[in-house]
Amino acid sequence: QVQLVESGGGPVQAGGSLRVSCLASGYTIRYYCMAWFRRAPGKEREGVAVINDYTVYADSVKGRFTISRDNDKNTLYLQMNDLKPDDTAMYFCAAQASNGISCDLEEARMDYWGQGTQVTVSS
């Protein structure tokens, strides 16, 4: 059974940094596309960043966020710098179940989801 468990969220002031993590079990992250999504209050869930053999970022986070993974720890990360109040959201880890599917910011392409970790940025 695949499980994705996020951690590392919390309150932070604008301009600050935070790193959220996603520990995978029952799944080997090195072989597949993985991603971070977020859902802000009152908004739809949106893609933030994906990683496969390459990385893709939403325009709103380019230059501030970095997605990475530690294959030995089977953990996905999202380093968030220069945080803004608009970054306040529940952050979700997601993963594809197989290869051969486009790895991008489309929610529908993801098969596994974590429960999310809350990031709150105050001004």
Descriptive notes:
It is a single chain. This protein is an all-beta fold and 123 residues long. The chain has strands spanning 3-7, 10-13, 18-25, 34-39, 45-51, 55-57, 65-70, 75-80, 89-95, 112-113, 117-122. Strands 2, 4, 5, 6, 9, 10 and 11 form a 7-stranded mixed sheet that branches. A 4-stranded antiparallel sheet has the order 1-3-8-7, with no helix packed on it. The model has no long low-confidence stretch (mean pLDDT 96).
Our measurement of the CA-to-CA distance between the termini, rounded to an integer number of angstroms, reads: 40 Å
The residue-averaged pLDDT reads 96
Poorly predicted regions? none
> Count the helices. How many?
0
Which percent band covers the strand fraction?
over 45%
Task: Tell me the series of helices and strands, N- to C-terminal.
Answer: EEEEEEEEEEE
Q: Please identify the structural class as seen in this structure.
A: mainly beta
- Quantity of strands, as a count: 11
Q: What Rg is obtained from the alpha carbons, in whole angstroms?
A: 13 Å
Question: What best-fitting shape do the alpha-carbon axes yield?
Answer: globular
Helix content: under 10%
Q: What does the largest sheet look like?
A: 7 strands, mixed
